[in-house]
Design goal:
- The complex is a heterodimer.
- In chain A, the strands form three sheets. In chain A, strands 2, 6, 7, 8, 11, 12 and 13 form a seven-stranded mixed sheet that branches.
- Helices cover 0% and strands 51% of the residues of chain A.
- Chain A is mainly β.
- In chain A, a hairpin with a 6-residue loop joins β11 and β12.
- Chain A is globular and about 40 Å long.
- By secondary structure, chain B is mostly beta strands.
- Helices cover 0% and strands 48% of the residues of chain B.
- Chain B has no helices and eleven strands.
- In chain B, strands 2, 4, 5, 6, 9, 10 and 11 form a seven-stranded mixed sheet that branches.
- Classes of the chains: A mainly beta, B mainly beta.
- The interface between A and B is medium-sized, with 23 and 21 residues.
Chain lengths: 113, 116
């Protein structure tokens, strides 16, 4: 199984500042047939299902603000919130869909400092 | 608009079975896979399995083999996830979610409580 490990577990950032969230997979999730990384990022707020932010490691889902960006390749990935807003307080999960069983990271909780 | 609507909360005793439904609307049901994902209290998201809504093929993680069944009724635009031999560790919110390269739409979740 591919183990997804996120860091840090929690992060407190001032409004308007940058938040950097990391995700590491125990094996590469690079899909050679399309030259893309099979990695997604989700945002989850209390009492709600997760919301897709990024897929293929760096493609922003329609309607997601451009302050959210994804980067990385192979085994190391980053979600960046360029200017944290109050509504960004949530738990963020990375997710690999490269191989079965599909797996998720443990989440990073983002709060306002 | 795309919607996935799940059945309501369930309370079951250990050893029992549960069947949760997920009804889709607003898109071509058979054009997208449906996955089931659960979230136990304080735990990370856990993939339960998926169904190819076009041909009915399914796949599950080894940890659920033999205990989970996922089906679909194309005329009803509904997928069903049945989990048997329930134990307390199965207490969680169960979600259905659409997609293959990430899940772009999710159901509202179904809370399953397993308790004697």
């Amino acid at each position: 199984d591919i183990v997804m490990t996120q860091s840090p577990d929690s992060l407190a950032v001032s409004l308007g500042e940058r938040a950097t969230l990391n995700c590491k997979s125990s094996q590469s999730v690079f899909f050679t047939s399309n030259n893309k990384n099979s990695l997604a990022w989700y945002q989850q707020k209390p009492g709600q299902p997760p919301k897709l932010l990024i897929y293929w490691a760096s493609t922003r889902e329609s309607g997601v603000p451009d302050r959210f960006s994804g980067s990385g390749s192979g085994t190391d990935f980053t979600l960046t919130i360029s200017s944290l807003q109050a509504e960004d307080v949530a738990v963020y999960y990375c997710h690999q869909y490269y191989s079965s069983p599909l797996t998720f990271g443990q989440g990073t909780k983002v709060e306002i400092k | 608009q795309v919607q996935l609507v799940q059945s309501g909360a369930e309370v079951k005793k250990p050893g029992a079975s549960v069947k949760v439904s997920c009804t889709a609307s607003g898109y071509n049901f058979t054009a997208f896979a449906l996955h089931w994902v659960r979230q136990a209290p304080g735990q990370r998201l856990e993939w339960v399995g998926w169904i190819n809504t076009g041909n009915g093929n399914t796949k599950f993680p080894q940890s659920f083999q033999g205990r989970v069944t996922i089906t679909r009724d194309t005329s009803a635009r509904t997928s069903y996830m049945e989990l048997s031999s329930l134990r307390s560790e199965d207490t969680a919110i169960y979600y259905c979610a659409r997609g293959t390269s990430g899940y772009d739409y999710w159901g509202q979740g179904t809370l399953l409580t397993v308790s004697s």
